[in-house]
Amino acid sequence: MSDPTRAIHHAAAEGYTTTADNYVRGRPDYPPGVADWLRDALGLRAGRTALDLGAGTGKFTPRLVATGASVIAVEPVAQMRAKLSAALPQVRALAGTAEAIPLPDASVDAVVCAQAFHWFATANALAEIHRVLKPGGKLGLVWNMRDARVGWVAQLDQIVNRVEGDTPRYYTGAWRKAFPFDGLGPLHEQHFSHGHTGSPEDVIVMRVRSTSFVAALPEAERAEIDAQVRALIAATPELSGKEVVTVPYETAAFYTVKEN
């Protein structure tokens, strides 16, 4: 069987292969309002089937399971997929990519891409998503973003963004160029505010380490990023010396409906 990581961006293939543990530890959860969005906007409930596309370690997958729908996860990076399977053995986890989804035509009621669509925002991926959706099925796109309206968060983003290279990112908006797409309706958008609470090491340092292009850097450059992040924590009164801190986040959720 071919290696699906050969078909994905080098930052994802290299970074996520080495950072699965940091991803589990450092990534924030999703706000409670997402449960209502999955039910009301995407129509997920018992008797429906949802595909978690680009599922990673399964950070979002429990939200789909909680709807009562049958959940299938597709993830190209074996190390990430193994974490998902260990945590959620009831979920069918498959190797695959957005351009080659290992499912039959018209087989799922919803495809959800959480923290993932910017990696594969292409016409080929949307055509494949359209193929596996049932008529009237829905594509949901979800992203968690640090709230850069807060001064120290903006500084943290500057440290991270300086080393992003050619890595696709949500905040650039480049993913929107994939729309409109023939056969999918307009995008509907909703936002939720929440916080990620924990030790500075977990919710700030490990979160930065879990960023694909940071994890893919040479060791010396990763150490320099760590040092810059820790220096920011030490210089920020609301973070310095604190055992528990809260990083403000905003979640953006979009959906579109298969029209034909």
Automatic annotation (TrEMBL):
Keyword field contains Methyltransferase: yes
Ranges for domain Methyltransferase type: 51-139
Keywords: Methyltransferase, Transferase
Entry's Gene Ontology molecular function annotations: S-adenosylmethionine-dependent methyltransferase activity
InterPro entries (alphabetical): Diverse_substrate_MTase (IPR051052), Methyltransf_11 (IPR013216), SAM-dependent_MTases_sf (IPR029063)
GO BP terms, alphabetized: methylation
UniProt-listed Pfam families: Methyltransf_11
Family per record: Belongs to the methyltransferase superfamily.
PANTHER family: METHYLTRANSF_11 DOMAIN-CONTAINING PROTEIN (PTHR44942), METHYLTRANSFERASE TYPE 11 DOMAIN-CONTAINING PROTEIN (PTHR44942:SF4)
Record protein name field: Methyltransferase domain-containing protein
Provenance organism: Paraburkholderia phenazinium
Organism placement in taxonomy: Bacteria, Pseudomonadati, Pseudomonadota, Betaproteobacteria, Burkholderiales
